[in-house]
Design goal:
300 residues; alpha/beta; Rossmann fold; five-stranded parallel β-sheet; four-stranded parallel β-sheet; 11 helices; 9 strands; globular; SIS_dom_sf; repeat; GlmS/AgaS_SIS; SIS_dom; Fructoselysine-6-P-deglycase FrlB-like protein
């Protein structure tokens, strides 16, 4: 990784998201490779890919297109009569995903959604959707994950939502962020239905890039304990529509409630920029974060 400017790759990649989303939205043939309506599906991934799998699973079930379960690849229960497994991975080299695919090969068809077309997973899966134009050099993922989710949304027929997300992301990136968003002591991210996965992903992005104290929960569950950490100088950030009364309850603690009237995926783009700016302000490089690498490859 040659660029010596901290976060330069992450910045370039997060800024390109409206363009990569638009490209994924037009991949109609590739979208047809994904499981058809009525199929029972397991979606697996690690880290960011697991959280995107959660969003896809919630969207697919909500659309009435079939049972869809999301698993961390290391904890998947695939003996439940699934018709297909969707394996999401940027690198295609993650040990747990490769091992899981080898275990189910010949038993359940596996569809890989992969960023690197040269990875070993490409030849191991039964069907493949490649997104090399969304692959990244930064260790901290931004555009691959959101581009994959855009592909999934489009495959479910949510074309109006995809179009709005692209327009909203362009608007977010064209507008300067509130600089105070980078200055909180602590961040909690909340979501409902498909945006729960986005909340988990947002928390991971802040931890990876800026070593920040972050948590994430389903919005309705936040009041069952976690609201105890809300306080002045701390932010609770809602992706999408908040439960009635929640904003007032958080503000009563002295904490700051954040919600934006944009497509939740576009709001994740805003968070990407906040995470990058917070990291750089702390003297960190999210392209090479502490203790992390592009892919987790375990020793045999």
């Amino acid at each position: 990784m040659a660029n010596s400017v901290p976060g330069a790759y992450m910045r370039e990649e997060l800024l390109s998201q409206p363009q990569t989303w638009a490209r994924a939205a037009e991949m109609r043939d590739e979208q047809k490779v994904l499981p058809a309506a009525g199929a029972r599906v397991a979606v697996v991934g690690c880290g960011t890919s697991w959280f995107i799998a959660q969003s896809y699973a919630a969207l697919r079930e909500t659309a009435g297109l079939g049972v869809t379960d999301a698993y961390a690849a290391s904890e998947a229960f695939l003996d439940r009569d699934y018709d297909a497994v969707v394996a999401l991975t940027r690198s295609g080299t993650t040990s747990e995903v490769l091992e899981l695919t080898e275990q189910v090969k010949g038993k359940v068809p596996v569809i890989g959604v992969i960023g690197d077309p040269t990875s070993p997973l490409v030849d191991l899966v039964d069907e493949v959707v490649l997104l090399p134009f969304a692959d990244e050099q930064s260790v901290v993922q931004t555009r691959f994950a959101t581009t994959a989710l855009t592909l999934f949304r489009a495959s479910l027929g949510l074309h109006d939502d995809v179009a709005r997300s692209i327009a909203d992301a362009e608007a977010v990136l064209a507008t300067a962020d509130d600089s105070t968003l980078t200055e909180a002591e602590q961040y909690t991210f909340l979501g409902r239905n498909w945006t729960i996965g986005l909340a988990h992903e947002a928390a991971l992005k802040m931890r990876e890039s800026s070593q920040s104290w972050t948590e994430s929960y389903p919005s309705m569950d936040y009041r069952h304990g976690p609201i105890a950490i809300a306080a002045p100088g701390r932010i609770t950030w809602q992706f999408g529509v908040a439960p009635e009364g929640l904003a007032g309850q958080i503000e009563a603690t002295g904490g700051r409630f954040v919600q934006h009237d944009v497509d939740p995926l576009a709001d994740l783009v805003r968070l990407h920029r906040v995470a990058l700016d917070r990291a750089v302000a702390k003297g960190l490089n999210p392209d090479l974060p502490r203790n992390l690498s592009r892919s987790v490859i375990l020793d045999a």
